[in-house]
């Protein structure tokens, strides 16, 4: 038995690696140039993945600042076609749900808003009038640009707070001259102007008045049009399913609950196709790099016929020869892969630096880049290696 | 075979044809025995089949017909892995063009002689250094082949062939690329190695050199035209044993 094994050729694993690296060390310039092709492809892909991840991290950071735990409750589709009316005390009902920190509602008021009484009522400039809870601005994480939001006192008198676009349309630039606007048939004093509200873009085209004055002057019903709900971190999904049952138990499906931050996140998806394009270009570069390796390996096999013949004469089997060239190609590609991953990470860091955003190079992208290079190299080496293994040793060592 | 002379290599009716129209008949039935400790010269005009025969002996190629036995093992029955193993362990090759590997040093080149036998690197290198010293290159250990003269390169190749103590060393015109003085030195080296116990077969175009060696086999048109072992001298050797 032992004797039988002694007869066989045998190549140690460490020697497989050593022999595989030999051809690369012997032709350094060629090695570097060939590896460069792979490096560019891998760098492009890692950079795209890295920049994407950094942007995602940036968006996430922004969302976290805005309030990712906000839910927006709207009327949904009615099965019967009848108008859906939420109870007037919806916000209070929702606030009684355990993990809800705050709920605030706004209600549509049947009123128009104009600069003065001399402007025709039809020209409202697309500005809605809403009766609002006093804490709605806190709920949506909004900010006042000038003046103040409504309080208990100003909610009872003709005071109005304007969204950013509404203020512009109504020509209110500064509160210094105590501007007034005309709501249906009464002048209201503008006491505040809001910053644009990211999570509730509708606020920008709205004129807010207090619920008491809305009831007094415009006979408003104060049925909520939208309810904003701040939820304790981690309870979003649970609360989301309960809201419908709470304010409309007879038909919970007719209540639509959305998460405004999802919409902002979804906007990022639009750039997804652009990323795919870049990734595709990176993949093409990789493919070209792989073809380059195969090409160089074929040439190398032709040049090294005598070496191959000698190795066969010294006891190498066909398998050993094939292994040598596959390992050489894989190492060549791996070299490019490692350089490419480094380059890609550097590009990402540079980009993040310039955009002043968070650096986030996903580890998977690095691992994936190296693995991809290894696999491409191995595949590129298969054909040249098979050719090398097929060489007739007698032919390969023949002089001339 | 007579008892006592161990046959290292036996060719039995070996024929080799290369494809062509008509097929090229490089070997036309060769019977030849080589015993342990011999130093044999192969001569013959160009195209007579010397290299082809050497390739058959070294299992670099398989005969079209007939059998090759190395230390009693019939090569035609062995797989690629076994034939390769046999080549690596039992046969040493020396080529006219040296065929050293560029990009690695002399020690590594010689050590490659045992690479495919699973010998550890340290062990290979130790033996390689010893072997380089034996062929007179103890002062050239740290060099690369392309820094050596032709004669020195051939010594490196001979050291590589001898590593692992093969049963037989096959040399195809080892002096073909060397000047006459260097050739003489290489032949002298082969002679010394033979005296130290190596069995050596050497192809040469040099009739004088061939005549100076203990046994000469001359080929013509793929056949053994003359074998000095079958003259009186050789027969007395056989008879005396
Ligand atoms: N691979 C091959 N394909 C076709 N014909 C071949 C091949 N190898 C050798 N031959 C032919 O076989 C014959 C013997 O060739 P071989 O190389 O053995 O001669 P040789 O005696 O070594 O000659 P030289 O002294 O010139 O080296 C020649 O006619 C040669 O052309
Ligand atoms: Mg020849």
Termini Cα gap of chain A: 42 Å
CATH topology of chain B: Rossmann fold
Please indicate the percent range of residues of chain B in DSSP E strands (runs of 2 or more).
Answer: 25-35%
User: Which ions, cofactors or small ligands are bound in this entry?
Assistant: adenosine-5'-triphosphate, magnesium ion
The number of helical segments of chain B is 8
Which term fits the overall shape of chain B? globular
Structural class by secondary-structure content of chain B: alpha/beta
Mean pLDDT of chain B: 91
- How many domains, in number, for the residues of chain A? 2
Order of helices and strands of chain B: EEEHEEHEHHHEHEHEEH
Number of domains of chain B: 1
Give the largest interface pair and sizes: A-B, 36 and 37 residues
Instruction: Tell me which CATH architecture of chain B applies here.
Output: 3-Layer(aba) Sandwich
What are the low-pLDDT stretches of chain A, counting only 5+ consecutive residues below 50? none
Total number of strands of chain A? 11
Instruction: Give me the secondary-structure category of chain A.
Output: alpha+beta
Relative helix content of chain B: 25-40%
Task: Write up what this structure looks like.
The complex is a heterodimer of chains A (400) and B (241). Chain A is an alpha+beta fold and 400 residues long. Chain A has 2 domains: 12-63 and 269-396, no CATH class; 70-261, no CATH class. Chain A has helices at 2-6, 13-26, 28-66, 90-95, 136-139, 164-169, 211-218, 236-247, 260-267, 272-303, 305-313, 318-355, 363-390, 393-396; strands at residues 70-75, 100-108, 113-114, 128-132, 144-147, 159-162, 180-183, 186-194, 206-210, 224-231, 255-258. In chain A, strands 1, 2, 3, 4, 5, 6, 7, 8, 9, 10 and 11 form an 11-stranded mixed beta sheet that branches. Chain A is elongated and about 110 Å long. The model of chain A has no long low-confidence stretch (mean pLDDT 86). Chain B has 241 residues and is of the alpha/beta class. Chain B has helices spanning 50-57, 80-90, 106-111, 121-134, 150-162, 180-195, 207-212, 232-240; strands at residues 7-18, 24-35, 39-43, 65-70, 73-74, 91-94, 168-172, 200-203, 215-220, 223-227. In chain B, strands 6-7-8-3-9-10 form a 6-stranded mixed beta sheet, sandwiched between helices. In chain B, a hairpin with a 2-residue loop joins β9 (215-220) and β10 (223-227). Chain B is globular, with a radius of gyration of 18 Å. The interface between A and B is large, with 36 and 37 residues. Adenosine-5'-triphosphate binds at residues 18, 24, 26, 44, 46-52 of chain B.
């Amino acid at each position: 038995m032992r004797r039988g094994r002694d007869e066989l050729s045998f190549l140690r694993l460490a020697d497989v690696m050593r022999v595989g690296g030999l051809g690369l060390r012997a032709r350094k310039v060629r090695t570097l140039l060939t590896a460069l092709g792979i490096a560019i492809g891998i760098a492009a892909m890692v950079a795209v993945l890295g920049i994407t991840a950094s942007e995602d991290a940036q968006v996430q950071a922004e969302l976290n600042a805005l309030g990712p735990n906000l839910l927006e409750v709207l009327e949904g589709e009615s099965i019967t076609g009848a108008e859906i009316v939420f109870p007037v005390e919806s916000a209070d009902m929702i606030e009684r749900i355990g993990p809800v920190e705050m709920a605030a509602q706004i209600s549509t008021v049947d009123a128009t808003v104009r600069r003065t009484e001399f402007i025709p009522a039809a020209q409202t400039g697309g500005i809605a009038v809403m009766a609002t809870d006093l804490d709605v601005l806190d709920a949506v994480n909004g900010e006042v640009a000038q003046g103040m939001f409504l309080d208990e006192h100003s909610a009872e008198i003709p005071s109005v707070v304007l969204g950013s676009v509404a203020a512009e349309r109504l020509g209110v630039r500064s509160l210094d001259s105590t501007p007034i606007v005309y709501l249906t048939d009464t002048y209201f004093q503008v006491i505040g102007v809001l910053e644009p509200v990211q999570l509730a873009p509708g606020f920008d085209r709205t004129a807010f008045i207090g619920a008491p004055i809305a009831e007094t002057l415009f006979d408003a019903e104060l049925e909520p049009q939208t309810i904003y709900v701040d939820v304790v971190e981690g309870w979003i999904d649970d609360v989301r399913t309960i809201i419908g049952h709470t304010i409309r138990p007879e038909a919970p499906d007719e209540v639509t609950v959305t998460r405004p931050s999802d919409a902002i996140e979804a906007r990022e998806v639009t750039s997804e196709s652009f990323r795919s394009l870049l990734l595709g270009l990176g993949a093409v570069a990789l493919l070209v790099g792989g073809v380059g390796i195969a090409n160089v390996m074929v040439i190398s096999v032709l040049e090294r016929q005598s070496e191959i013949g000698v190795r066969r004469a010294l006891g190498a089997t066909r398998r050993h020869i094939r292994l040598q060239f596959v390992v050489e190609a894989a190492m060549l590609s791996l070299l490019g892969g490692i350089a490419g991953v480094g380059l890609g990470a550097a590009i990402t860091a540079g980009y993040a630096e310039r955009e002043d955003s968070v650096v986030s190079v996903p580890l998977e992208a690095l691992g994936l880049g190296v693995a991809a290079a290894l696999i491409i190299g191995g595949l590129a080496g298969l054909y040249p290696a098979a050719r090398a293994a097929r060489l007739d040793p007698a032919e390969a060592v023949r002089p001339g | 075979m007579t008892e006592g002379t161990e046959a290292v290599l036996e060719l039995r009716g070996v024929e080799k044809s290369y494809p062509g129209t008509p097929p090229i008949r490089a070997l036309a039935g060769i019977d030849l025995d080589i015993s342990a400790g011999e130093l044999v010269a192969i001569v013959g005009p160009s195209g007579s089949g010397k290299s082809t025969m050497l390739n058959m002996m070294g299992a670099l190629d398989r005969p079209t017909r007939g059998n090759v036995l190395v230390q009693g093992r019939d090569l035609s029955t062995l797989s690629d892995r076994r034939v390769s193993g046999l080549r690596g362990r039992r046969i040493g090759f020396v080529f006219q063009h040296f065929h050293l590997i560029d990009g690695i040093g002399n020690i590594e080149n010689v050590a490659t002689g045992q690479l495919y036998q699973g010998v550890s690197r340290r062990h290979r290198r130790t033996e390689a250094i010893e072997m380089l010293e034996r062929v007179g290159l103890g002062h050239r250990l740290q060099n690369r082949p392309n820094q050596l003269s032709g004669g020195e390169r051939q010594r490196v190749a001979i050291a590589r062939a001898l590593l692992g103590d093969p049963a037989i060393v096959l040399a195809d015109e080892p002096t073909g690329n060397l000047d006459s003085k260097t050739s003489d030195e290489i032949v002298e080296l082969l002679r010394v190695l033979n005296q130290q116990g190596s069995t050596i077969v050497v192809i040469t175009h040099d009739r004088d050199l061939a005549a100076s060696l203990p046994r000469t086999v001359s080929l013509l048109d793929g056949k053994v035209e003359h074998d000095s072992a079958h003259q009186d001298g050789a027969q007395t050797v056989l008879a005396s044993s």
